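Support case: user asked for a sample of complex input and structure output to validate their parser. Sending the pair below.
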Amino acid sequence: RKEVEQDPGPFNVPEGATVAFNCTYSNSASQSFFWYRQDCRKEPKLLMSVYSSGNEDGRFTAQLNRASQYISLLIRDSKLSDSATYLCVVNKILTGGGNKLTFGTGTQLKVEL
Amino acid sequence: GAVVSQHPSRVICKSGTSVKIECRSLDFQATTMFWYRQFPKQSLMLMATSNEGSKATYEQGVEKDKFLINHASLTLSTLTVTSAHPEDSSFYICSASSPFNEQFFGPGTRLTVL
């Protein structure tokens, strides 16, 4: 079983739609969680951190359920510019210091006119 | 956010040659840098953790003699793909860990081995 699992999509949605992505992780020792965005042939860029209390940044809302080891991302009022691959990322602090990020395969979003 | 650069951005080489990729943190000192590889339609896979002044830590399945990592200063780590073969063609991305443990990614290097 992969450490971080995501539905690869693609999700094709019309502009203005609301779309939700889900992610599950297997390592209960994981300590922090993120959503990254990756455009085609580019490096990943941090979209937002994810907290158990839920957090919102404009049109984006992220949620973490530690008991279920489940992370979600909700995008409201989708824009064409939201088209990208969204990566679920889990961070673990290593014994002796340092940290390790584990990436999901990503969920592809295509927003259409 | 912090800036991490990679050079070259793209390289095409013949099978059997060695290719060196540089990763620099431009506005902070990074004691730890990470090297990832991403094949088409797959996730980023961590190859190794590069620690300044010491040997890199390689992930399981990554050949340390094939992927040589040097982290000689707090702002520079290099990855050398030795005797590259077509199956090594991939997108190689580095990241640098800030003093607050946040990772900043370089723009990546696309390697094509003919």
